[in-house]
């Protein structure tokens, strides 16, 4: 019971969902204790609590994956160098970035089909737009022979 209520993925929206399913209010506050949970007889409702907690864990997974992908791009710089005195520049060291881009595109596209995307749908859509833009720019450079 304690693990379900103190699950790191549990947000206010999950407590609201739990309250609606139970028919009485359950809120996470600093004053909410095991004794308070016992007084509400939450142990009787473990299947519901487990279900909501599991749902929150899966949403939390989507959030964590999105945060991790976005964090991986922080500070990424595309390096370029002059190409044989032609006045043209080429990108350097793009293999690792291309692998990361492809991996993140696939992950983000699969997130869109997740039933747990709800609160992060707008973030995921925006992130996919940004990844696609990077892919487009990379393709333009490739087509111009600048990679």
Q: Summarize the main sheet.
A: 2 strands, antiparallel
Report the principal-axis shape.
Answer: rod-shaped
Helix content: 55-70%
Q: How many distinct helices?
A: 6
In order across it, which strands form the biggest sheet?
Answer: 1-2
Count of individual beta strands: 2
Give an overview of the whole structure.
The chain is mainly alpha-helical and 147 residues long. It has helices at residues 2-5, 12-22, 34-39, 46-73, 95-111, 121-143; strands spanning 79-82, 89-92. A two-stranded antiparallel ribbon has the order 1-2.
What tags apply to this protein structure?
147 residues; mainly alpha; two-stranded antiparallel ribbon; 6 helices; 61% helix
Structure described in brief:
The protein has 147 residues and is mainly alpha-helical.
What is the secondary structure topology, with strand pairs?
Blueprint: H1 2-5, H2 12-22, H3 34-39, H4 46-73, E1 79-82, E2 89-92, H5 95-111, H6 121-143
Antiparallel strand pairs: 1-2
Helix pairs in contact: 2-4, 5-6
């Amino acid at each position: 019971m304690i693990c379900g209520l103190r699950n790191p993925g549990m947000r206010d929206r999950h407590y609201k969902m739990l309250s609606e399913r139970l028919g009485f209010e359950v809120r996470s506050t600093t004053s909410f204790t095991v004794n308070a949970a016992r007084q509400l007889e939450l142990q009787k409702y473990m299947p519901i609590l487990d279900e909501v907690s599991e749902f929150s864990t899966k949403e939390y997974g989507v959030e964590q994956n999105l945060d991790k992908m976005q964090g991986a791009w922080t500070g990424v710089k595309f390096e370029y160098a002059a190409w044989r005195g032609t006045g043209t520049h080429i990108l350097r060291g793009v293999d690792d970035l291309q692998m990361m881009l492809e991996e993140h595109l696939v992950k983000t596209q699969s997130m869109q089909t997740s039933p747990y995307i709800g609160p992060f749908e707008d973030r995921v859509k925006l992130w996919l737009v940004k990844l696609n833009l990077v892919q487009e720019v990379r393709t333009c450079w490739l087509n111009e022979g600048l990679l």
